[in-house]
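Q: My labmate handed me this sequence with no annotations at all. I'd like to see what the chain might look like in three dimensions before we decide whether it's worth expressing. Could you predict it?
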Amino acid sequence: MELSLKLPRQGSLACRYTIPQQPTFRCRVTGPPILLFLSKGKGMKMDITQKIQELKNRPDFVDNVGMILIHNGVVRGWSRNGKVNVEALEVSPDHGKIAALREEYLQHVGIFEIIIEAQQGILRPGDDLLYIVVAGDIREHVKPVLADLLERIKSEAVVKREIVA
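A: Here is what I predict for the chain of 165 residues:
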């Protein structure tokens, strides 16, 4: 399957999606940089090892990165509200708000890159819910960005509804 889109501000996006044993989605973007969110569907998730390797392959990586922190949020089997059993979690992320938060935190001193993937739909306990990867120069810069960004995404950009037993 191939997809071509004309983007605002004089750019274009050409993508190819293939389904061999390992599905791949490759895109070529011309024009200003964009942030693209894809809903991967049940059972598919970010390959953290691959994302780290992609960061390390960037030519400016070694001059700018001394730490990579990763948050992998998982659906709990219990609620914070009384520890009742949770059968599922309905999640609706606001991808536009997440993109805006990412752009805001990329401006912080020492931050090289931020990668975010937020799942949506009905998720079960144990399912991956939110990935955040923050790469930067030193821990004094990277740790607070991950902590603050996580709190802001959860409070400003994600709506969740627990489905309890």
